């Protein structure tokens, strides 16, 4: 997931300096200042934003009309320099008026101790949307060492059970193939991961023969997201219920915890699969040098036939035109798959939104935060973060008691470009979306006002439209009549849901970090060498050498740390299931 998840850095020295300045600053004095309602510019320190500067467009107009505020984003992602921006602003004693950041690795508790964020409790009268998430704010308090107060609200909060999939129509991971070419070679059976090899070979041969283009490859890889391991190798492991925790691949149900260097383990299996694909000429030779954007362009141009994720292949290639022509990526019927799925998160994720201690007009800011957790706020602020339908009356309306997209909404939510009507401001719809990049609630959750999801792709009207395309019709006919990927996976027990618990990894000491740096470099480099080995003997020599080298570099010490974290995460998942079951039983008895 997606996954381009960002680990937020925590720097004790900067926060320690903030503690020294905290006693000298204005601190909470601004709470006593009367708000005259005049226009105010709000500094939003946002670790998730990919934009820096003042919010523009329709979302800016909406915030101005409702709160008479301008949002000015401070974004480490844009500013660069790692944690420098956080360090500098923390040391000055003022991180921002509104703060969006991760609370793991001790960061949340340090922000409280340094008096960089304020307890929102004095401002919560009438704030029903924040109050409805009391369980989530209490859980966050436990993580940051606070016994009372509302110091922040976590993102991605869900009203659904932690044992249901948190995704929408598609899982985060899955073996997606160019269905039109899979159809062209006769829908061959795919019993195991290894059975994909002859299928991909047939698809590649067919595509090249039809187009005369020998630059088409079944698979294309990239290095951008490599971390503790070769990221691309991890993805098929997710098809069998595994996800990563450092150097550990852990099953969603807690039944298995493997080192990525384990002989004949799942990582080993996928390395062999990739190597065999490469030796059959199925892997793009530019994989070792290209970045994600270059590879993504190849998907858009029909040059790659297999996708690790729906949000890559489908997003790039499944245009309305291609789907109407029966072309596009759909999940393959891999018979032994048990795909890892992230469960819904009743207590939210590991990022939070907080009130800066030096902010003016705190009541107005808390009203804004409360609005973000309202149904309207989820629709309007969630347009960037993966599927919220956007503003009512612009993108959608209610017809015969059900939500439906307007012509404008259908266009802009399916990749089209359009300027917003004058009453909504000015400029293009895309340029005006919220730059917060912070999902307050899961967009796959249900809007109590409509009875349907915040995500338009889950509406009956949109599912009906999607299934009317030749591509979807043919896929459904060959997948037991399933109307969606999730329906197919759930019906065939091919999904493994990791209960949606909020687990925050503890700080790792400098010794572990140093060892990890050396070990992961060896693993990543040797993994790429193994994928491009020219024989079984060369492959095995590289993989065996990787195990020997990493053992000598301190793999065991780091693995012990990661293994404990993986098992603690599993305990947290089991605990949230028990907690939710108990609260459900208590509610039923009242």
TrEMBL record:
Keyword annotations: Signal
Keyword Signal listed: yes
Segment forming the signal sequence: 1-25
Listed name of the protein: Putative extracellular solute-binding protein
Species the sequence originates in: Bifidobacterium bohemicum DSM 22767
């Amino acid at each position: 997931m997606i996954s381009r998840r960002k680990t937020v850095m925590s720097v004790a020295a900067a926060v320690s300096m903030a503690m020294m300045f905290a006693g000298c600053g204005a601190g909470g004095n601004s709470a006593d200042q009367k708000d005259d309602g005049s226009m105010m510019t709000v500094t939003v320190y946002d670790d998730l934003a990919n934009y820096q500067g003042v919010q523009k467009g329709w979302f800016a107009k909406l915030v101005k009309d409702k709160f008479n505020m301008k949002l000015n984003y401070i974004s480490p992602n844009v500013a660069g320099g790692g944690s420098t921006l956080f360090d500098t602003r923390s040391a000055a004693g003022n991180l921002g008026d509104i703060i969006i950041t991760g609370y793991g690795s001790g960061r949340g508790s340090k922000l409280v101790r340094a008096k960089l964020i304020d307890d929102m409790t004095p401002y919560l009268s009438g704030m029903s949307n924040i109050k409805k998430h009391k369980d989530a704010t209490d859980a966050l308090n436990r993580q940051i060492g606070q016994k009372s107060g509302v110091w922040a609200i976590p993102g991605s909060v869900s009203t659904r059970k932690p044992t249901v999939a948190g995704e929408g129509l598609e899982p985060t991971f899955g073996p997606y193939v160019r269905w039109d070419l899979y159809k062209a070679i006769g829908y061959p059976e795919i019993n195991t991961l290894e059975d994909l090899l002859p299928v991909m070979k047939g698809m590649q041969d067919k595509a090249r023969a039809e187009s005369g283009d020998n630059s088409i490859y079944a698979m294309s890889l990239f290095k951008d997201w490599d971390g503790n391991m070769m990221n691309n190798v991890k993805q098929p492991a997710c098809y069998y219920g595994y996800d990563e925790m450092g150097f550990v691949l852990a099953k969603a149900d807690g039944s298995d915890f493997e080192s990525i260097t384990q002989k004949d383990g799942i990582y080993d299996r996928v390395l062999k699969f990739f190597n065999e694909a490469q030796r059959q000429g199925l892997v793009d030779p530019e994989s070792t040098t290209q970045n994600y954007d270059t590879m993504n362009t190849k998907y858009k141009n029909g040059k790659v036939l297999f996708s690790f994720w729906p949000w890559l292949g489908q997003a790039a290639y499944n245009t309305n035109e291609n789907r109407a022509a029966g072309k596009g990526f759909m999940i393959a019927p891999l018979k032994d798959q048990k795909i890892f799925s992230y469960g819904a998160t009743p207590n939210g994720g590991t990022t939070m939104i907080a009130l800066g201690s030096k902010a003016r007009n705190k009541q107005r800011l808390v009203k804004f935060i409360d609005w973000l957790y309202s149904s309207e706020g989820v629709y309007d602020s969630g347009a960037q973060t993966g599927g919220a339908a956007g503003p009512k009356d612009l993108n959608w309306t209610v017809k015969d008691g059900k939500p439906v997209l307007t012509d404008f909404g259908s266009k802009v939510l399916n990749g089209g470009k359009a300027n917003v009507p004058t009453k909504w401001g000015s400029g293009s719809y895309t340029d005006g979306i919220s730059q917060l990049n912070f999902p307050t609630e899961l967009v796959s959750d249900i809007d109590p006002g409509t009875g349907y999801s915040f995500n338009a792709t889950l509406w009956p009207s949109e599912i009906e439209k999607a299934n009317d395309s030749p591509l979807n019709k043919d896929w459904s006919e060959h997948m037991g009549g399933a109307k969606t990927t999730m329906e197919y996976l759930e019906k065939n027990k091919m999904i493994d849901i990791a209960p949606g618990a909020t687990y925050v990894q503890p700080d790792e000491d400098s010794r572990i970090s140093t060892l990890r740096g050396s070990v992961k470099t060896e693993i990543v480099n040797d993994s790429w060498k193994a994928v491009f080995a020219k024989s079984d003997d060369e492959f095995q020599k590289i993989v065996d050498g990787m195990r020997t080298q990493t053992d000598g570099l301190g793999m065991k010490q780091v693995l012990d740390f990661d293994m404990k974290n993986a098992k603690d995460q599993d305990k947290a998942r089991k605990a949230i299931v028990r907690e939710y079951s108990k609260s459900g039983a208590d509610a039923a008895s009242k």
